[in-house]
Design a protein that fits this description.
single chain, 478 residues, 63% helix
């Protein structure tokens, strides 16, 4: 009876908080269509400034979990602790997961809803299917808040795994057995973390990149046009390219972003700027120098908290911004890398003129991310934007550089046939145009060849690329 009352009371508090703070719950009180319309808020600037770092329901959930931990320690045996967790804490976690999932679904529907005609008439974007900048910023801020809130909740549950009794104000469960309350709490924390990661991937990859960027901002059109772009010979007569001085013929100043990417670049830059704005708010909280880095490396210790406590709080609050930024960087750069490697065989030839334009497009997006200090150390994997830049740099390299790299790899794979007689060449082909095709199987016949080839690529500045990716690019360069 007591556990039933505990469960119902905690769930009532959680649902009451959700009804007054979550957008999905508030929208059910009024006309549903109005809540999904874009561009009807007169105080959008104030809304952005007042957007919480994480939902109030996450803070309440963490407090209820902390209260539940203390109450569970009043039981001296594992069976009673199991009963309390199963009857109170587990149902509370389930309700929290449902509420956060409902909020994420509402935000996704709002993000993908078609903008009202009145809001697009004054938009600076060319595509009428894109929401206004202010609406996009507001939606992004809410997504970051929800992701950070789910992370805070998961960490609140995970802290219940500590063992060893009670010390000071911290409550600890007894030493874990084969099936202890700690194991149950760990599974609950993992379920919330899976929801957190799924929300981030659903927002960035499915909703934003695949729908907003690819479909509505016309990045898909750019990917379809790239095989023709890469097959173009070197020429200054490109669509959208203005005449400029020839004094710096090989410099990037002679190139502009491909027209198909203008909308894509704009909406991606909105997310990055919103992330930086949120980081400025966090940096102010921790007494930083306001440089706005996304990893919190510029935050100075202070504020009266213990170093470990402050670091733990920073990790939780910075999580939403870092996860969104990292996922977005990976998703965008993966699209460029797919164009460069061309696994579908859509671009059988790469010519330097088109490759230079592609290289400029990749570097333009890379500068957008680099200018906001993406924290590469938060992941042990290679930053995919770096891989896309290396691939585009190889594609647009000087013919002599490509020939030298091709010859070095060919001599490494087939040392006995490194000398090619003149009879194997066509008389009407210039020497610098003759480039023997590399065979990947020649390298994988001996593992040492793969290691030596990868070391050679690292020395040339292409170590972030796989051997098969380099060979695919080199074989198509003309």
């Amino acid at each position: 009876w007591w556990m039933t009352q505990e469960r119902l009371g905690a769930i009532h508090l959680l649902e009451k908080c959700a009804s007054s703070t979550l957008s999905s719950s508030q929208s059910q009180k009024g006309p549903s269509q109005k809540s999904l319309e874009i561009g009807h808020s007169s105080n959008e600037n104030e809304t952005l400034k007042s957007q919480p770092l994480f939902p109030a329901i996450s803070e309440l959930f963490a407090a209820l979990i902390h209260s539940g931990r203390k109450k569970s320690t009043s039981f001296s045996d594992n069976r009673s602790q199991h009963l309390y967790i199963a009857n109170v804490i587990a149902p509370l976690c389930s309700i929290f997961v449902d509420l956060i999932h409902t909020e994420a679904s509402f935000l996704r529907k709002k993000l993908l809803s078609r903008p009202a005609l009145s809001s697009t008439s004054s938009s600076i974007l060319r595509s009428p299917n894109l929401v206004s900048d202010m609406d996009l910023k507001a939606n992004i801020s809410q997504w970051i808040s929800v992701i950070s809130g789910a992370n805070v909740a998961a960490q609140a549950v995970r802290r219940s795994q500590s063992t060893g009794g009670t010390r000071g104000n911290a409550v600890y469960f007894s030493q874990p057995a084969s099936s202890s309350p700690i194991d149950v709490l760990e599974r609950l924390a993992q379920s919330i973390e899976k929801l957190r990661d799924a929300i981030c991937e659903d927002f960035i990859i499915s909703a934003f990149v695949e729908t907003i960027v690819m479909e509505r901002a016309k990045f898909a059109s750019y990917m379809m046009r790239c095989p023709f772009l890469l097959s173009q010979a070197e020429s200054m007569e490109r669509r959208g390219q203005r005449e400029k001085d020839d004094g710096h013929g090989n410099g990037r100043n002679n190139w502009t972003l491909s027209p198909d990417l203008n909308d894509s670049f704009h909406v991606v830059s909105i997310i990055v700027k919103t992330l930086k704005s949120n980081m400025m708010k966090l940096n102010d909280m921790f007494g930083s120098d306001n440089s706005g880095t996304l990893d919190g490396s510029n935050v100075r210790s202070g504020g009266g908290m213990e170093p470990n406590t402050e670091q733990s709080m920073m990790t939780m609050l910075f999580f939403g911004n870092r996860s969104v930024f990292g996922t977005l960087s990976s998703a965008i750069s993966a699209k460029f890398l797919e164009i460069a490697v061309d696994p579908q065989g859509m671009a059988p030839e790469i010519r330097r003129g088109g490759a230079q334009q592609f290289n400029h497009d990749v570097l333009t997006f890379a500068e957008l991310f680099d200018s906001h200090s993406f924290p590469s150390r938060i992941s042990t994997n290679i930053n995919p934007m770096e891989r896309a830049c290396a691939a585009s740099r190889l594609m647009s390299a000087e013919p002599a550089h490509i020939q030298s790299l091709r010859k070095a790899l060919n001599d490494l794979a087939t040392p006995s046939s490194g000398i090619i007689t003149l009879l194997e060449r066509r008389n009407d082909v210039e020497e610098h145009d003759f480039m023997p095709r590399l065979n990947l199987d020649d390298f994988y016949a001996d593992e040492r060849l793969v290691e030596e080839a990868q070391s050679m690529l690292s020395a040339k500045g292409y170590g972030v690329l796989e051997l098969e990716e380099v060979i695919s690019i080199i074989n198509r360069v003309r």
